[in-house]
Amino acid sequence: MxxxxxxxxxxxxxxxxxxxxxxxxxxxxxxxxxxxxxxSPITLSQKSxxxxxxxxxxxxxxxxxxxxxxxxxxxESLRVHGWDIFYDEGLGDHLIxxxxxPYDLTRQVKDHLNQIxxxxxxxxxxxxxxxxxxxxxxxxxxxxxxxDTVVDDINSFKEREGCExxxxxxxxxVERDSSVGATLTSLSQLDxxxxxxxxxxxxxxxxxxxxxxxxxxxxxxxxxxxxxxxxNLTLGTDFKCGQTKFKTSVLEYIRQNAWTPLVVASCxxxxxxxxxxxxxxxxxxxxxxxxxxxxxxxxCENELDHKVSVLYTPHINDDKRDYVEYTSSCFLGCExxxxxxxxxxxxxxxxxMIIDAAVLVEFFLRKxxxxxxxxxxxEYLFKVPETKGDPGFGSQMRRLRDELDRATKISTLNSPQxxxxxxxxxxxxxxxxxxxxxxxxxxxxxxxxxxxxxxxxITAGLACLDTQxxxxxxxxxxxxxxxxxxxxxxxxxSVSNTSLTLSRLSHGLPDRLLMPPPTFSxxxxxxxxxxxxxxxxxxxxxxxxxxxxxxxxxxSLSSQILGQTSTAILPIYTSEINGDVEEKAKxxxxxxxxxVCVTLGDKGCVVTCGxxxxxxxxxxxxxxxxxxxxxxxxTDHIPPSRCNTNGAGDAFLSGFxxxxxxxxxxxxxxxxxxxxxxxxxxxxxxxxxxxxxxxECHSIWEVLDEKTKRNYSxxxxxxxxxxxxxxxxxxxxxxxxxxxQACRFATKIAGKHVDMDTRGDGFVNxxxxxx
Length: 771
Hints:
This protein has 771 residues and is an alpha/beta fold. The protein contains 23 helices and 26 strands. α19 crosses α21. The longest helix has 22 residues, at 393-414. The chain starts with 7 loop residues before the first strand and ends with a helix. It holds the Pfam family Inos-1-P_synth. Keywords: Inositol biosynthesis. It catalyses: D-glucose 6-phosphate = 1D-myo-inositol 3-phosphate.
């Protein structure tokens, strides 16, 4: 990264805790190149950031550090501060008294840490074990005012440190789960005292992060992220440190050997403040154990007996010790057993993960990576990630590398330096030049079908933020409670879905460092939002994603007086359409519509077209479609586990409208009757070969005298077209695709949108879909 790039902000909740103090110590030791001694006789001077994959270099063959491979923010660019509810001595003195790091190191960083004064934190009785909180913000008249005080802290820190991105990490004690967060759907619900609403402190921080559009990382095991009001990037839950990472690696090894895991029984014990609080609050302890039990859930190993125990042992302090026995059934039903014993300071394992979490989040946001891809890339950090992919540590690290590579490649394609090398969209051609085609760059082969002129498309209408309830079950009655696995925010409304679909359409796929030509030169969505966090999130999702390279949101409007930007909560269910679809479509045709499209979910679609007289009023439509009706069955069925039908109709409509504009790219042979225009002869006489030169010729042609124009008209009537003529027609007289092809094409476009495996693809190759 450039030394002039803005610093990366990191705000920690629990600044005087072991994890935060260890992190602060490591950064100071690194920046000042401290030399210190461990209890072992080895003198260390360059190892302060070991364990940070974003800050250490690769060694030898195979994966290790990633620092040299990607343009991550450096540790020197981090600006760290945070909140705490305890502060009765300097942080340096507190670190020495905790006795969690080598004394030779802590004595050298004590004075530096003593200069750091935590911000006063949020405390609410009953969410963590009984404790004496002496450094807390006063309870305001309402929860909203408490959130606002944290918002002020964030904004002040951002302005003081000059940070563009600030990542907020909850590193405090584990709270008990709370059911309040999931019921909050409007900020107005926060206008009551905390004593009545009883919002978890971690959620107050998360709401403040959302209002300031800061990413929020939950390293603890409570259900903070279940609140629908959180429209920012949220990641969690519960950090997966060394011992749990190793457990998933071992089970990955067992499964790859085609053995059947039978027992994983682990006992870990330590004596830090987190386990002390857990021992005082059974509800929080249960939340912690539940996350530890769930780490193997996606494997669906029904025979696996997974046992976990956590013991508070004050004597060993932060030195976490763990004993695990693995038993599996292998060949001929014989058993294989392995026992592991691990020992390490818990904060030494957690602190580098906090640094990596902040650096990776900033990297992905800077590269414009979609929220869902960021969550998949960072699964390796959490015991039970929201995306529920393969929990194996090796698999998760491969996903991280894949997303890092993809983000880097897309960023390179979109860089100003690279864009200069890419084919530019065709300039808009005046109406009188519509029979001319200027040869496109040859970086990609010319497709058989194209949209002449690669026009700009304007979409107008509703845009909102869709909060999707993923893996939502179907209610059995009006009173039944619907459950779902996780939340996902995406751009919603017809404008968003249509614009995103059209921006993905291209002729080909990326080839090395070449961007394929888009089907349309520019997509301009027109919509209105409020200047609130929801509106900001919607604009960000539409603007800062790699696939939207030709999406121009600069014409969208934001209003201070609109109120709140709409948010749609979407559990998606299917329902039957009653009646004769074709007859109902014909009724709409009789009322003046040119084309009626009816999508039928997994049954396909029905398209009915008006007669020749109606089509004559819409000259852009293919005349061969007039009077036709086509029923297109769905042939490519998507498994329910991968299916998300939100926006499917908009995607189908985008594909169908594109199909109606597609024309075959047919060169005229020497035997074809002359189709030269007077202007094309004039342009050729001026040796105009580029779009700019042709446009300049057109300006001259407009002011030519009538006699000169008549001379060119006479020449055009006599001269036969030659094979090497550089001017060819953009449209062939019957070059449109058939209605059947259009329906099939639109159905495939909708399928790409519905299938969650392809929904996030940056490019949809329409040439492949038309084959």
